[in-house]
Design a protein that fits this description.
This protein is mainly α and about 1450 residues long. The chain contains 69 helices and five strands. Helix 22 packs across helix 25, helix 30 packs parallel to helix 32 and helix 62 packs parallel to helix 64.
Length: about 1450
């Protein structure tokens, strides 16, 4: 067994083979296998040797069972591998280690350093619990241990604290607590040692580097736990104030106000590390460790802190260091896209992201400036890395060589835009890489000298998506057609960049249209894409769109097809007009819209002559005539000039210049009439092309609208167009339903002739009834129905019946969707000054009486109302409509009827699905909260739920969970209730509160039987109150929380701060505990003199005191009742007053009021409080001669009044002023009322009668109150301190005999009768003596403990572990004492009553003793109702 193996066993005190310090599993397996082979070979050699010896003497054959030397011999090989020692040898080594302390001696060895060797071998792959014992037993000599050992122990201790910090310490024994304190003291000593090595006067370079290197190496670990521990260790070691114990920590040094809030947790790195005395010696290693860590770290905030540090403190004196830093950061920016997207996704509102961007720009700007200054021949890279290096040359003559990733990283940072903290470095980088009005730098591969692609396509796409115009322009330069087409189809491109892309596409069409057209795979899709971009607001692309649509067949829905935008200006094509004598031949790429504007100028000047337009008109007429001839001959080769011309006219008529164009055509009718005649003849030749016919009719109607208008006048063009329209109407019969509906829509849109509309409707109905398939789009049907509703057609219902009767044969027509969309678009009648919208637009429509017809159809088509088309039907039932000029949301008149249909006719699956939508996480914010809540309430009260049930519901019946609301959906229900109350807040807080009370039963019904659900709701409301504060929504949250607390008080212990400062609980609805509190107060006021009555009064007093601590809000609701019960008692003489227990009642009430401080002093309780105080003053006036017997009451009364003055001075002084004469008389009557005199001494008031006092105005009260403070000397009510109780505590802890302990307890008992608050100093000693074996001490300790809890019931839970320990004690007498005090303690510790009674029951079951009497008594006191 070698020295290294022996040290591996002795130092950790782990005697096993292989040693525990060998953590690599492969190495352990290899060592075990090698040992097996060696031992097997050695066994054969020993047997052969022993057989040789036996052959010479006994001639016996030696086997493993008969061998004597096998367990005694081994190979002598000191330089060989370590061997497994036999068990008895291990025991010897273990004994020698204990007697000679070999482990400690090996730890002290520094040449060789065995301990350091073990730590470095084990590293962070396995925990080292033996280190803790080693450092614990070092007896303060931390200097002998290596620095790495101290660091490892600190990390091990931090890990233990993290795992055990959340565990409760109640079950720990005294030995465990002592060990823990000793361990914490050792940790502080160790931390002080490490900080002294770093920050002390003896700090040297070697130890500083060793300490920091040990932690920094772990920052780049692949394990998250190891990285977190390393950061925690660094923060402990580098923070100077972390080692101080008991002293006040030094105030933190001034922090950089520019640091974002998220990086405040990394001050150990950004502030403390650079302040090290020897920081310059660790700068290189720190920077290198952090450069490696940014590639492993997954927390964005930590990466941000590392980058900020690297930008400020990385040593870049050498060019190689600077290049390594730039390359590491560039790899982070380019390759770790998830981290980067998280860092800069919300940069517009994040100071942290802004700081990181500034740091990155600083790193790269310094690097670029340095590389541009380096000479061309400098070697800035190793030859092995040359393949990724590029040589850059700027037009200014400057050159640089750097990694291509660094260039890409800088461009990516530029796409993020400038930081808010200053854009100097951003502009510098932008000017370097993308100089304004200058070409970009050129790049060459270093290894091959070929020109490199500096900006690949993925990087150009990021540049196009940025908001920096210069980057967008640079990315769009010299792009191939296929690149332009690829980029224009990408997502996430801003409108401004898309406009530039479309302009470049227009230029590409003008430059090389054939190449561009060859690269387009789907022209229809591309044309639709350009139209969508135009709808987004992008400009340009008209030429490209015309190229796409020129060769496409005309769409069937030409009326709805988007038209390419044409510029109204005169195009450059005018210059190509040839001489009049030669007719020009049209090319496919000619812009017909421009030719039309050339023929019919919008604003002709005085010199314009029609002769200049004739050549273009003749060219159009020739092209139209040739195409018409080919169509008549049946030739399939049609160029499409007629369709293009009609589309161009329709586009111009839809532009803002349509009126000017029609007037120009009217003036040049000799040119317009031939063109229109040719279009009409083409339409007659191709009647099957319904798209062309529909568009032609639309052009006719639009032109006639202008000519028939006020500005129009008769003429040849108007007459011709009217003739065409009449011929079209007479000739065009309805061949299918779709064409009939198209014709009907056109008639409704342009003519408005009711007779023509009705005839068309009748024709469509006839076609539908003949069995014609109805293959139409829902949009077209909706458009027609809206138009019929607007004009008030009497055939609407007939058309609906015919349409929906054929719906089963039409896969595209969905009747429910059509009806729902019409009902959704209902609007209120317009105001007199508001213009009406276009009747056939997709805007809202005024349904009027037709809404009832549509609702009937909806009920007939979908009896469940919401199952066919869930999305529009849900919006129909629950959407929130906002009407103009109305204070609240406008609710459709038919909504209540539809909600009733939904609840009465839908299946349970449909109802539950609807509930999920209303309450789910992805619920619509536009849902009307009132409609949603009414629906949920109606679901619970559907009559069919209760059909067939027993009408006599049992008293203990549990409410059924009809809605089956999940816990997560309760938050949605709460938000609906709050939204409804917030909407009603304009009617006043009272209306909002009443609305919350009305909705509370619904919320409680959904929470019934699940306390965790109510806790989740209350936690959500508490968070909302903290978020919204005193806003309207915050007040509504507070009101709802108060109402919920009144119904479920058992779930709010302790009472949250949000409720303690909220009003409204006094006058709110009933509370669950009102009856019980009323019973307790009534029992407290009982004046019977029987023994049982006294016990009930005592129990009621304890219950009221417990209520005052646990639920002050609920008890304060009954303060007027308490004040009323104090009346009518002071008319008796003092002897009767005492004998009938009236004085006891007054004392009890005053004690309860003391526990209700400071809430009882709030202004909302002033009336009831003053009533109580007047009763107290009447008591003192009535029995002023018996002040000696009233001394305890007077003391409490004066102390309570002083607290009143302290908490609410104006109200308290006002009360004292009104009763100043009576109180002065009392103080002069008896010399015993010293405290009352001291109280009145502070009142600098003249003596006045009661009437004058009552007439005081508020300003006088304010002035007197401010001038008379403090009313009472501070020393009068100074509480006892721990120093005054120290002699008793010392005697109690030092008492050896029972008599000594009893004597001290008796003294404490005597003092506590007058000042029970002193018992709080002895709670620890009392808990120890409660389990004492001596009965007198135990009984007295139990009595004092209960007296302390009665004085302040909030201490009850502190004694719970001791009481439970006594119930489970092995000493029979201790258990009996605890059981005797069980009922009283259970009443005072009601929140844990179930645990106490269960333990008592188990004691009776397994302890062979009768506990039923004590359990029954405890339940009797609790009345089985007081669950708090």
């Amino acid at each position: 067994m070698g020295t290294e193996a022996r040290s591996s066993c002795s130092v950790p005190s782990n005697y096993s083979y292989p040693p525990c310090t060998l953590t690599d599993e492969e190495t352990r397996t290899e060592m075990i296998n090698r040992e097996l082979q060696t031992s097997q070979r050695e066994k054969q050699e020993i047997l052969a040797f022993e057989g040789h010896l036996a052959a010479a003497s006994t001639k016996q054959t030696i086997t493993e069972s008969s061998s004597l030397l096998l367990s005694q011999l081994t190979s002598l090989d000191p330089q060989g591998p370590p061997r497994r020692p036999p068990p008895h040898i291990l025991d010897q080594v273990k004994g020698l280690n204990q007697s000679l302390r070999l482990g400690h001696l090996l730890c002290r060895s520094r040449s060789p350093d065995f301990l350091l060797n073990i730590i470095q071998r084990q590293a962070s792959s396995q925990s080292m619990p033996w280190l803790a014992d080693l450092v614990q037993s070092s007896e303060g000599s931390l200097d002998v241990l290596p620095v790495q050992c101290l660091c490892e122990f600190l990390l091990h201790d931090a890990a233990d604290d993290a795992t055990s910090g959340e565990e409760e310490e109640e079950g720990e024994s005294k030995e465990q607590k002592a060990k823990k304190r000793q361990r914490q003291q050792k940790q502080r000593q160790l931390l002080g040692r490490l900080q002294d090595l770093l920050l002390g006067p003896k700090a040297d370079e070697q130890t500083t580097c060793e300490v920091l290197d040990y932690f920094l190496r772990r920052l780049g670990s692949s394990q998250v736990a190891s990285r977190v521990l390393a950061m925690k260790g660094l923060s402990l070691v580098l923070s100077e104030g972390s080692v101080r114990d008991g002293d006040e920590k030094e105030p933190p040094m001034e922090e950089d106000p520019g640091d974002p809030e998220a990086l405040r947790g990394y001050q150990w790195l950004l502030r403390d590390l650079p302040r090290l005395p020897l920081f310059d010696s660790v700068r290189p290693t720190t920077a290198l460790a952090l450069q490696q860590a940014i590639h492993m770290e997954t927390d964005p905030q930590t990466v941000s802190a590392y980058l900020v540090y690297l930008s400020q403190h990385t040593p870049v004196e050498e060019q190689s260091q600077h290049s390594d830093l730039a390359l590491d950061v560039a790899r982070l920016v380019v390759e770790r896209s998830t981290i980067m997207s998280h860092l800069f996704s919300k940069r517009s509102c994040s100071a942290e992201s802004d700081a990181v961007l500034v740091a990155l720009l600083s790193i790269f700007s310094r690097y670029v400036r340095r590389m541009r200054k380096s000479k061309e021949g400098d070697e800035v890279y190793s030859w092995s890395e040359s393949q990724d290096q590029v040589f850059l040359r700027w037009t200014s003559g400057e050159t640089a060589t750097m990694h291509i990733l660094v260039v890409h990283a800088m461009v990516i940072l530029l796409t993020l835009g400038p930081p808010r903290a200053g854009d100097g470095e951003f502009q510098a980088l932008l000017d370097i890489w993308f100089p304004e009005k200058q070409p970009l730098p050129t790049a060459f591969l270093v290894d091959t000298s070929e020109e490199a692609l500096l900006l690949p396509d993925w990087l150009k796409l990021r540049m196009i998506r940025s908001e920096v115009p210069r980057l967008v322009d640079a990315a769009l330069q010299d792009l191939e057609p296929q690149q332009l087409l690829l980029f224009v189809q990408s997502f996430g491109i801003p409108v401004s960049s898309m406009s530039k892309l479309l302009q470049y596409l227009d230029q590409a069409v003008a430059h090389d249209p054939q190449t561009l057209e060859q690269n387009i795979m789907d022209k229809n899709y591309m044309a639709h894409l350009v139209e969508v971009q135009h709808e987004r607001g992008a400009s340009g692309g008209q030429t490209f769109h015309s190229l796409l649509t020129a060769s496409l067949p005309p769409r069937r829905d030409s009326t709805e097809a988007p038209k390419p935008k044409s510029s109204p200006e005169q195009p450059s094509g005018q210059g190509r007009t040839r001489a009049v004598t030669q007719v020009r031949v049209l090319a496919p790429e000619d812009d017909l819209a421009s030719m039309l504007l050339q023929i019919f100028p919008l604003s002709p000047g005085p010199r314009w002559q029609s002769s200049s337009a004739r050549p273009a008109a003749l060219a159009l007429q020739q092209a139209l005539g040739q195409e018409l001839a080919r169509v008549r001959q049946g030739s399939p080769e049609v160029t499409g000039v007629t369709v293009r011309l009609l589309q161009a006219i329709a586009t111009l008529l839809n532009s803002p210049h349509s009126g000017a164009l029609v007037m120009s055509m009217h003036r040049s009718h000799f040119l317009a009439c031939p063109l229109m005649r040719q279009l009409c003849q083409y339409q007659r030749c191709v009647p099957q092309d319904t798209g062309f016919s529909s568009l032609f009719l639309k052009v006719l109607m639009q032109t006639l609208q202008w000519l028939d208008g006020p500005a129009g006048e008769g003429g040849p063009l108007q007459a011709q167009l009217k003739l065409f329209a009449a011929q079209y109407s007479a000739r065009h019969r309805i061949s299918d339903v779709r064409s009939g509906l198209l014709r009907l829509a056109e008639a409704l849109a342009f003519r408005g002739d009711l007779e023509m509309v009705n005839s068309t409707v009748r024709a469509v109905v006839t076609t539908l009834k003949s069995g014609e398939k109805c293959g139409v789009e829902p949009e077209l049907v909706g458009k027609v129905l809206r138009g019929l509703i607007e004009v008030g057609s009497p055939h609407l219902e007939e058309l609906l019946a015919a349409l929906f009767a054929t719906a089963p044969t039409s896969p595209t027509l969905r009747p429910v969707a059509v009806v729902s969309s019409l009902l959704l678009q209902e609007k209120e009648p317009p105001a007199p000054g508001e213009p009406e919208a276009d009747s056939c637009s997709l805007e809202a429509v005024q349904l009027g009486p037709c809404s009832g017809l549509l609702v009937d159809w909806l009920e007939m088509l979908d009896p469940e109302v919401i199952s066919s088309c869930p999305d529009p039907q849900q919006r129909l039932l629950f959407s929130r409509g906002k009407g103009k000029g109305h204070p609240g949301p406008q609710v459709p008149s038919f909504r209540p009827y539809l909600l009733a249909l939904l609840t009465h006719q839908s299946s349970w699956s449909t109802l539950h699905q609807c509930i999920r939508v209303l309450l789910g996480k992805n619920r619509e914010q536009r849902f009307d909260p009132s409609a949603s809540l009414d629906f949920l309430w109606a679901c619970i009260h559907i009559p069919r739920i209760w059909q067939g049930r027993d009408q006599r519901t049992p008293q203990k019946r549990r409410e059924e969970l009809v809605l089956r609301v999940q816990a997560a959906e309760l938050i949605g229900l709460v938000e609906l209730i709050l939204a409804e109350a917030e909407a009603r807040s304009q009617d006043g807080d009272a209306a909002a509160c009443s609305l919350l009370q009305a909705r509370l039963p619904l919320l409680l019904s959904c929470c019934r039987g699940h306390d965790e659900s109510v806790r989740k709701v209350t936690a959500h409301l508490t968070g909302c109150i903290q978020q919204w504060g005193d806003s309207v929504l915050g007040r509504r949250c507070r009101d709802l929380l108060v109402q919920l607390y009144l119904q479920w008080p058992e779930l709010r212990v302790p009472v949250p701060e949000a409720l303690l400062h909220s009003g409204g609980a006094t006058g709110s609805s009933t509370c669950k505990l009102d009856g019980l509190i009323h019973r307790f107060i009534t029992l407290l006021a009982d004046t019977s003199d029987s023994r049982s009555s006294e016990n009930r009064v005592a129990d009621a007093n304890m219950a009221c005191r417990k209520l005052a601590v646990a639920h002050p809000i609920l008890l304060l609701r009954h303060l007027p009742m308490i004040a009323a019960l104090l009346h009518g008692r002071t008319h008796l003489n003092f002897q009767e007053f005492r004998q009938q227990n009236h004085l006891t009642f007054f004392l009890h009430v005053l004690g309860v009021l003391e526990l209700l401080q400071p809430q009882v002093f709030q202004n909302e309780h002033q009336g009831a409080l003053w009533d109580c105080l007047r009763s107290f003053v009447r008591l003192l006036l009535s029995y002023r001669k018996s002040s000696r017997h009233l001394a305890p009451f007077i003391h409490k009364f004066v102390h309570f009044t002083h607290k009143y003055v302290t908490c609410n001075a104006p109200a308290a002084v006002s009360f004292l002023q009104k009763h100043a004469d009576a109180l002065h008389d009392l103080s002069f009557d008896s010399s015993d009322l010293v405290m009352l005199k001291s109280l009145l001494a502070g009142l600098s008031l003249p003596s006045r009668d009661g009437r004058a006092d009552r007439g005081l105005d508020e300003e006088g009260e304010e002035e007197s109150s401010t001038g008379s403070l403090p009313l009472v000397s501070v020393s009068l009510f100074t509480p006892l301190t721990a120093a005054e109780m120290a002699p008793y505590m010392k005697r109690l802890s030092r008492g050896q005999t029972v008599e000594d302990v009893l004597e001290v307890l008796s003294d404490i008992d005597e003092m506590s009768r007058r000042r029970p608050e002193i018992l709080g100093f002895f709670s620890t000693n009392l808990q120890r003596l409660m389990s004492s074996a001596e009965e007198p001490c135990r009984n007295l300790a139990f009595g004092l403990a209960l007296r302390s809890i009665q004085n302040n019931p909030s201490f009850a839970a502190d004694f719970l572990p001791t009481f439970m320990c006594c119930l489970g004690s092995r000493d029979f007498e201790v258990v009996q004492t605890a059981l005797r005090n069980l009922p009283e303690y259970t009443l005072l510790c009601q929140e844990h009553a179930a645990v106490l009674l269960h333990r008592a029951f188990l004691v009776g079951m397994y302890g062979q003793m009768d506990t039923s009497v004590q359990i029954s008594e405890a339940l009797r006191i609790l009345h089985m109702e007081a669950v708090m």
